[in-house]
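Allow me, if you will, to draw on your knowledge of protein folds for a short while. I am sending you one protein, given as its amino acid sequence and as whole-number tokens for its backbone shapes. Kindly check, if you would, that the fold set down in the tokens agrees with what the sequence suggests. The record follows directly beneath this note:
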Amino acid sequence: MNLILKAHDTIQTIQEHFSAIFPYLRLEFYHTKHQPGEANVQADQYLHNVTLQTVTGSEQDIEIAFHPEMKTKDLELLFETQCKLYVQLMRKQSGTWLQTTRSDEQTLAQQNQHGADMDAFKHTKQELDEAF
């Protein structure tokens, strides 16, 4: 799978392209690097209307090649080494976006499935609550 990051794309546009592939995952972009197992500070997060060109200082488009069996930590490292972008993978869980700080060894497919499973559980629980 390839993700084409165009210089004039906003962070939100990039997030939408990635989430079209993995609906329960989202990339957040930060000014600073996080250490393995640590969370990013929200104050360091780029606003979603910022363009890739503003973040990288380059007018070049970037192509990121990844696959569902890639580990979370490897995807984050790929963004850092290939395009000097600090990203944190987020997983949607029960309607909330969580940083995947403790699951960096999981693959993208596993992370996405975990989010889907939690969403299904949430809906099942809600249906049961409404039935009683």
About this structure: The chain has four helices and five strands. The helical segments are 11-21, 52-56, 72-83, 108-131. The radius of gyration is 16 Å.
